[in-house]
Specification:
The complex is a heterodimer. By secondary structure, chain A is α+β, with helices and mostly antiparallel strands. Chain A has one domain (29-275): Ribosomal Protein S5, domain 2, CATH 3.30.230.70. In chain A, 31% of the residues lie in helices and 32% in strands. Chain A contains 6 helices and 12 strands. In chain A, the strands form 3 sheets. In chain A, strands 1, 2, 3, 4, 5 and 6 form a 6-stranded mixed sheet that branches. A 4-stranded antiparallel sheet of chain A has the order 10-9-11-12. Chain A has a two-stranded antiparallel sheet with strand order 7-8. In chain A, helix 1 packs across helix 2 and helix 3 (100-116) crosses helix 4 (148-162). Chain B is an alpha+beta fold. Chain B has one domain (1-145): Ribosomal Protein S5, domain 2, CATH 3.30.230.70. Helices cover 46% and strands 18% of the residues of chain B. Chain B has helices at 2-12, 36-50, 77-81, 109-145; strands spanning 60-67, 70-73, 86-92, 97-104. In chain B, strand 1 (60-67) and strand 2 (70-73) form a beta hairpin. Chain B is globular, with a radius of gyration of 17 Å. Classes of the chains: A alpha+beta, B alpha+beta. The interface between A and B is small, with 13 and 8 residues. Chain B: One of its GO terms (biological process) is poly(A)-dependent snoRNA 3'-end processing. Chain B: This is Exosome complex component RRP41. Chain B: Belongs to the RNase PH family. Chain B: GO terms for molecular function: RNA binding. Chain B: InterPro entries: ExoRNase_PH_dom1, ExoRNase_PH_dom2, ExoRNase_PH_dom2_sf, PNPase/RNase_PH_dom_sf, Ribosomal_Su5_D2-typ_SF, RNase_PH.
C-alpha cells in the first residue's frame, strides 16, 4: 500500500517522513549514506578511484600525457576533467553528445580544481615553455542515484592521491623527453576539497546527500566545497528556492563535519594501501 | 564493436517475445587489457539475464591467437599487439553453436581447427563459471524473497 501511495503522490510520501524529521530510507536529515572508496583499481591508468555514496557509483581514471605548455603560462601544466553520465547509469540519459547535467558537472569539477588549488599547475611543468604534463581526469558515473557532485569530487581527490608520475629528463642532444618509469613520484596534493550537497524541500527544509528521487522532488539544491582549513572553495547553488543566511551557515557547519569524515576515510584507505 | 555485439545478441535473445520493443545494451569498458570484445559479451550476457530478458542460451566469448605453432586462448593486450592472427569467438555453449566468429590476419587453414578448439574450450570454461554465479545469485535472491 505504501508503494502505491509513493507512486501516486511521491511528494506527500516524502513529506510524511520529513515531518517526523527522518527520510524514506531511514536516515536522519543530516546523515550521509554509506561511503565506500576503492583506490588504484584500474591498473592501466596512472591513478584511479571508485567511490560509492549509497547507490551512486563514480569511477575516476587519470591519465598523464605530455603537452606543450600554454603560451601565456609557460611554466604551467594542465588538468582536464571530464564527467561522463552514460545511459547505463540511469534511464534519464541518452547516448550521444554530453547532456546538460554532464556539462555542468564537468565545469563544476574544473572550478573546484581551479579554486581549491588542489595541485599547483607549476608542479606539472617539466621544462618551461617546452614540455609539461597534462592530466586527463575522466569521471564516469556507473550508477546514478543523486548527489553526483559529491561522488565526483571525492573520486577525483582519491584518484589524484593515487597518481604517480615518472621522472622525466630531456635529452640534451636529441631534445627528446625520456620518462624513467622505474622512478615514480606521487603528486603534491596541497588541499583536500570535499563537497557536501544539500536538497531544499518546500523552500524550508534542508536534507544532506539527496538520493535521485529526493533531488527530483526538491525545490532547490546547494553544493558546498570545503577544504581542511575551513576555507570555502566553491559554492554551487543553481537557482531553486531561496535560502536565508542562517540556513546557509548551518550548511557550512555540516560541510566542515563532512570534511572530517571524508578525510578520515581517505587517510585510512591510503594507509592500508601503503601497508601492503 | 557495437555492431558485433548487436549481431551476437540478436542471435541469442528471443526478440519475438518482446514485439515492438527496443532492448538497449550499454557496455562501459573500465580497463582494457586485450579480449575487450569477449569481456563485453560475457558482461552483457549476465546483464541481460539480470534484466530478465529471455535468451536461447548463455553467450560466452573468448579470444584466441596463434603464436609460434601454439594456439593461445584469451589474449592479453601485449599478445594482441604482437600482430599475429587473432580470433574472437562467441559461443552458445549448450548447443555448441557459434553466434559470432571473427578473425583477422592470415592463418593457414590447417591451424584453424586448433585455434578454434582453444577458443571454444575457454568459452565453455567461462560458461561453467557464469552458470555457477547465476545459480548462486538466484538461490540467494529467492531466499531473500522468502520462497
Amino acid at each position: 500500500m505504501a508503494a502505491g501511495f509513493k507512486t501516486v503522490e511521491p511528494l506527500e510520501y516524502y513529506r510524511r517522513f520529513l515531518k517526523k524529521n527522518c527520510r524514506a530510507d531511514g536516515r536522519e536529515l543530516g546523515e550521509f549514506t554509506t561511503t565506500t572508496v576503492n583506490i588504484g583499481s584500474v591498473s592501466t591508468a596512472d591513478g584511479s578511484a571508485l567511490v560509492k555514496l549509497g547507490n551512486t557509483a563514480v569511477i575516476c581514471g587519470i591519465k598523464a600525457e605530455f603537452a606543450a605548455p600554454p603560451p601565456d603560462a609557460p611554466d604551467k601544466g594542465y588538468v582536464v576533467p571530464n564527467v561522463d553520465l552514460p545511459p547505463l547509469c540511469s534511464s534519464r540519459f541518452r547516448s550521444g553528445p554530453p547532456g546538460e547535467e554532464a556539462q555542468v558537472a564537468s565545469q563544476f569539477i574544473a572550478d573546484v580544481i581551479e579554486n581549491s588549488q588542489i595541485i599547483l599547475k607549476e608542479d606539472l611543468c617539466i621544462s618551461p615553455g617546452k614540455l609539461a604534463w597534462v592530466l586527463y581526469c575522466d569521471l564516469i558515473c556507473l550508477d546514478y542515484d543523486g548527489n553526483i557532485l559529491d561522488a565526483c569530487t571525492f573520486a577525483l581527490l582519491a584518484a589524484l592521491k593515487n597518481v604517480q608520475l615518472p621522472e622525466v629528463t630531456i635529452n640534451e642532444e636529441t631534445a627528446l623527453a625520456e620518462a624513467n618509469l622505474k622512478k615514480k613520484r606521487y603528486l603534491n596534493i596541497r588541499t583536500h576539497p570535499v563537497a557536501t550537497s544539500f536538497a531544499v524541500f518546500d523552500d524550508t527544509l534542508l536534507i544532506v546527500d539527496p538520493t535521485g528521487e529526493e533531488e527530483h522532488l526538491a525545490t532547490g539544491t546547494l553544493t558546498v566545497v570545503m577544504d581542511e582549513e575551513g576555507k570555502l572553495c566553491c559554492l554551487h547553488k543553481p537557482g531553486g528556492s531561496g535560502l536565508t543566511g542562517a540556513k546557509l551557515q548551518d550548511c557550512l557547519s555540516r560541510a566542515v563535519t563532512r570534511h572530517k569524515e571524508v578525510k578520515k576515510l581517505m587517510d585510512e584507505v591510503i594507509k592500508s594501501m601503503k601497508a601492503k | 564493436m557495437g555492431l558485433q555485439l548487436r549481431q551476437t545478441f540478436e542471435a541469442a535473445i528471443l526478440t519475438q517475445l518482446h514485439p515492438r520493443s527496443q532492448i538497449d545494451i550499454y557496455v562501459q569498458v573500465l580497463q582494457a587489457d586485450g579480449g575487450t570484445y569477449a569481456a563485453c559479451v560475457n558482461a552483457a550476457t549476465l546483464a541481460v539475464l539480470d534484466a530478465g530478458i529471455p535468451m536461447r542460451d548463455f553467450v560466452c566469448a573468448c579470444s584466441a591467437g596463434f603464436v609460434d605453432g601454439t594456439a593461445l586462448a584469451d589474449l592479453s593486450h601485449v599478445e594482441e599487439a604482437a600482430g599475429g592472427p587473432q580470433l574472437a569467438l562467441a559461443l552458445l555453449p549448450a548447443s555448441g553453436q557459434i553466434a559470432l566468429l571473427e578473425m583477422d590476419a592470415r592463418l593457414h587453414e590447417d591451424h584453424l581447427e586448433r585455434v578454434l578448439e582453444a577458443a571454444a574450450r575457454a568459452a565453455r570454461d567461462v560458461h561453467t563459471l557464469l552458470d555457477r554465479v547465476v545459480r548462486q545469485h538466484v538461490r540467494e535472491a529467492s531466499i531473500l524473497l522468502g520462497d
